[in-house]
Specification:
By secondary structure, the chain is of the alpha/beta class. It has four domains: 34-51 and 456-548, Immunoglobulin-like; 55-149 and 188-445, Glycosidases (TIM Barrel, Alpha-Beta Barrel); 556-654, Immunoglobulins (Immunoglobulin-like, Sandwich); 656-746, Immunoglobulin-like, CATH 2.60.40. The protein is built from twelve helices and 46 strands. Helix 3 (196-209) packs parallel to helix 5 and helix 8 runs parallel beside helix 10 (375-386). The two termini are 47 Å apart.
Length: 747
Amino acid sequence: MRARTRRVAALSTAAALVAGGGFALHPAAAAGPAVASAGPALSIDVGQPGTAISPDVYGASFATPAFAASARIPLDRWGGNSTSRYDYRTDDYNTGLDWYFENLRWDGGQASSGGPSALDTFVATSTASGARSAVTVPVNGWVAKDDRVSCGFPTSTYAGQDSTDYWWPACGNGQKGSSDVAVTLPASQTSKAFGPAEITGMASHLAANAPAGTAPMIYQLDNEPSLWNSTHRDISPAAVSGASLFAKSTAAADAILAGDPSAIVTGPGDWGWCAYFFFPQDSCTAGADRTANGGIDLGAAYLKAFHDHDVNVGHRTLAVLDEHFYPQGDGIALTTAGDAATQALRLRSTRALWDPTYTDESWIATTGVYENVMLIPRMRAWVNQYYPGTGLAIGEYNFGGLESMNGALAQADVLGILGREGVRWAALWGAPDTATAPGTFAFRMFRNLDGAGAAFGTTSVAASSTDQGRLSVYAATRADGTVTAVVVNKTASDLSSAVSVAGAALAPTAQAYRYSPADLAHISVSAQPVSGTTTMTFPAQSITTLVMPLAGATSSLSFASSATSLTYPGSAVLTARLYTSGVQVPGAPIGFYARLRGTTAWTRVGTATTNATGRAQLRVAPSYDSEYLARDLRATSPSVSPAPDSPVRTVLLHRAVTLAASRTALRSGGTVTLSGVATPSARGLTVTLQRAVSGRWVTVTTTTVTRRSTFAVTVKPPRGRPAYRVVVAADAHHLNAISPSRTLRVT
């Protein structure tokens, strides 16, 4: 797809909580009078395990905080056309075809003034939410050189263009009479060179500045290179040759690993059908460049080029083969739900990811070649033939309709396919903005069933439907052996189906979590009898996640904290959930206990009663590093065997520190006093004043916190816009405190 861009941007307790916000679970409503139609039989065989399911398949690009938290997104991607010419050193980027080929500055970035770049902030935010970062690296050789100074098709050079930017009339769209104007200005009109040395610098910077606990980052080798001569044609007016693409890509991979040896390198991240098979210079046909590269598909040739390169250098550089996927049927991708025919097509179009019998229902079928896209099996075949051991990724995709139940059904089907097929990572483009969108609930049915992290299993097992087009099924096991299954009813009728589970002895009762048009704001939950074969009813247009514990299970108490670290005076919600034989236990008293980290004595800080879904919660606001556990307070009796104490959860506490300046504008040679307060009391601790220099924080001076927890230092700042921050040292019971940065203007 061409037009896709996005600008970013003292120990105490509170009342116990039993349900909260968008995470409320509702008991399932009693069955109505309608009679369900006979549905296809579903079979699950735990004795036939498949691949491990990578959590990173549930990723998204530029996930909003609300969506990321609700869906527990494990991977966040920095990608799209605007990242192809992004300079992490200045935060400048070029919009390309998406918006008049203009140089702009990324919202929120501070790199140009010595502060953290927008990309640094993106990685830090992703890490704080528990997500891996996937970062696009410019490979084409150029990045934007300024902010709102240059554009690719200035009207001063290219007069009479079809359209100019209303807000910046000096910049045009590069077309005249609906045809592309010939590019006559050099790439240096908007851009500066960005080669292997700069790529190494970028990877090194990201590795050095990433917060502690950051997972190894995924580095994407640019974005949709087959479209460079369209999306970035002001600097790449001619389509890239296969030889040039492979040379640029392998050199970039070497450069990335030189800067960050832990990097997971993926590519090419190309746009879709034509770019899977045909070389950019051949214009979606089997032309001369394909012939020059052995007459094989572009995706296969890309793998072969990396294989040959890696043999020469003696180590693997490409970890994952990444392709983008957008269904090409009219009105499907990147749109709202559409009419009934479009909605039906959307649900069928997911088969293009995996089904060798599915003929694509778009212009692809008119080409006479490769009408059966079956993308993931095709990618796997390329890997097996040309570079065994390479992982697979769908780095960008969208099936549309995410504001609707229809889109949620398609999205759930896609997530099931990605896990079953062993894809390494994937990222939805155009993710929902809110926690309550139907598309968000599609992710929750795999990642966050109950609002406390209950999820689909981690190892795929055999699952089949006698009619996958009506009722699709995906199954897995959790680490404790619990069997889970997601069933998607794509029809407008309730379906009654026989569900058989082989290869495991199950407890007699399971939980059925369900999302359907009956309540688009919540997930319902109900008990579901299970046996070897059970008849179950799946409501029309619904997603059902079955959680089926093994037989003989005893009481257990899960326990989680909404945060593992806080900044004073922040709070965290402790969530305990009580199960017996896999069934959630309501009405049970749960005690919450705390202690100073590193000590042994526990103090009860609150009690709550489990709700209808077995959940009890308590909000705590620690004033030092603390450890917590939950305890089942039911008395032992012939009918009750209390659960063992929960695992211990640790919540670390950063002090808070402010930073104020006696003045923010001054003449060169003048002085300014920087002062602040650290809380809770930090008397006697060291305060380090730092200034941002070339993207890194450099120590200027140190002082000590007074008995009133204040500090002050006087400095003579350099000319320009220097940015300062202070760091208060950690002690035995608190993490360090880092102030917000303060930027001065020195003339």
